[in-house]
């Protein structure tokens, strides 16, 4: 085997395939959480109750989003796509789909 018969080799850098995370969360839901907590903070006119509730909401949401991103960094995008396409791919049979007969043969029946 000569040099011409070798397979081509290409280096793929880790930075090109790694998901973009902000504070170990996906970027889009993290921005939504930050915006909502900022709106709670600003709408309270610097009252202690609103400051604490905004901080608690932010930290709880941050922990939740981190857990989701740790399980699968693209889970938010998959969930959004699932919700958006839900009516196209319903999980229930429709009236016009006809009756489906399921034949189950038990392994111990000898058939």
TrEMBL record:
<dbReference type="InterPro" id="IPR007792">
    <property type="entry name" value="T4SS_VirB3/TrbD/AvhB"/>
</dbReference>
<dbReference type="Pfam" id="PF05101">
    <property type="entry name" value="VirB3"/>
</dbReference>
<protein>
    <recommendedName>
        <fullName>Conjugal transfer protein TrbD</fullName>
    </recommendedName>
</protein>
<keyword id="KW-1133">Transmembrane helix</keyword>
<keyword id="KW-0812">Transmembrane</keyword>
<feature type="transmembrane region" description="Helical">
    <location>
        <begin position="48"/>
        <end position="69"/>
    </location>
</feature>
<dbReference type="GO" id="GO:0016020">
    <property type="term" value="C:membrane"/>
</dbReference>
<keyword id="KW-0472">Membrane</keyword>
């Amino acid at each position: 085997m000569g040099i011409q018969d070798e397979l081509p080799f290409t280096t793929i850098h880790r930075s090109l395939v790694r998901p973009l995370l902000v504070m170990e969360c996906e970027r889009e839901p993290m921005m939504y959480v930050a915006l909502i907590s900022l709106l709670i903070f600003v709408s309270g006119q610097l009252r202690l109750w609103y400051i604490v509730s905004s901080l608690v909401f932010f930290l709880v949401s941050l922990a939740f989003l981190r857990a989701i991103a740790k399980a699968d960094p693209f889970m938010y995008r998959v969930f959004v796509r699932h919700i958006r396409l839900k009516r196209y791919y319903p999980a229930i049979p429709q009236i016009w789909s006809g009756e489906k007969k399921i034949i189950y043969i038990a392994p111990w029946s000898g058939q």
